[in-house]
Amino acid sequence: MSTPAISLNDGTSIPWLAFGSGTAFFGKDASKPVTDAIRAGFRHIDAAQMYKNEEYVGAGIAAAGVPRAELYITTKLNKVPEGQTVRDLLVDSLRKLRTDYVDLFLIHMPTLHEDLKATWREMEGVQREGLARSIGVSNFSLRYLREVLEVATITPAVNQIEYHPYVSRAGASLIATHKEHNITTSSFGGLTPLIRATGGPLDAVLTKIAARVAQGSGKAVTEGQVLQLWLRKKGIVCVTTTSKLERLQEYLAVRALPDISDEEVAEIDEVGSTQHHRAFVSFPIALCRVHTDYTVTCRPNG
Ligand SMILES: NC(=O)C1=CN([C@@H]2O[C@H](COP(=O)(O)OP(=O)(O)OC[C@H]3O[C@@H](n4cnc5c(N)ncnc54)[C@H](O)[C@@H]3O)[C@@H](O)[C@H]2O)C=CC1
Ligand SMILES: O=CCc1c[nH]c2ccccc12
């Protein structure tokens, strides 16, 4: 069964469900989880230079034996060291990932770039050259998105951000701006209400909707799957991860579940908006010191 795809503003499309090689796999050998994910049915792999494991991701992709054209590979730009270019860093990623193009290349964090406009111009250059089919951004607040839009001749296709019901109220104006420019939202941390902010007001709502979808579809449905159905119904890419085979099956089983209703989406929105919980608050300086070779430039978070 194939994963539904979302059309991007550049005419390409992106698989709705992605397997992430970050969080638990930071700096680690992610090859087996990546191979497992592809063999189980994932076709979109989310990587990043900052994760310091692109070689492993490349090895995992190769071992899965799925033709490159059937895969969608995202990676993300780290801070560009003095004397190097965006292109240099992408070419290095391509070598590690064992491919000659990525489907999507994102600026990982706006605060790592002193001249964001110049960085975006370089991003446009690598897309024009065919090294990245689509380009976009990640962790961009409105302020940084506007900065890029001021000079963009290619509008970012995607903004990958922390997105789940407990940040949806805080993120409403950003999402509205995405819609205005036809920028696709991609979510990480989507399971936060269940795993990082348990005991909140959504718990009962998710359980109720899971039971309703289970009854309607004749399939077992978990609260996590309801959160993923909420993203899918909103046309938001879901980037998730796991090292467990049974969890991979749980994520992929969402493909066979029917959409939740507009009323259920509204109920999740409404109840979610009564609580705020951002799990990925600030740049992980400690992780950065361990896994990167440079000092972080401190630009204020917007
Ligand atoms: N652009 C960025 O700055 C960021 C991107 N990411 C990307 O997103 C990917 C996914 O990140 P997450 O936020 O971790 O995804 P997520 O919020 O979907 O959580 C996945 C985690 O939840 C666990 N899990 C799932 N169901 C569970 C349950 N019922 N009970 C307990 N645990 C459960 C999984 O084992 C896994 O560790 C990363 O690997 C990375 O590729 C993540 C963070 C930041
Ligand atoms: O790709 C994810 C990197 C990451 C880890 N922790 C945080 C906090 C805030 C933004 C991004 C991240």
From TrEMBL:
Residues 28-271 form the NADP-dependent oxidoreductase domain. It comes from the Eukaryota. Pfam families: Aldo_ket_red. GO terms for molecular function: oxidoreductase activity, acting on NAD(P)H as acceptor. Transmembrane segments: none annotated. SUPFAM superfamilies: NAD(P)-linked oxidoreductase. CDD domains: AKR_AKR3C2-3. The record marks 76 as: Lowers pKa of active site Tyr. The active site is at residue 51. Gene3D superfamilies: NADP-dependent oxidoreductase domain. Substrate binds at residue 108. InterPro entries: AKR, AKR3C2/3, Aldo/ket_reductase_CS, NAD(P)_OxRdtase_dom_sf, NADP_OxRdtase_dom. This is NADP-dependent oxidoreductase domain-containing protein. It comes from Phanerochaete carnosa (strain HHB-10118-sp) (White-rot fungus).
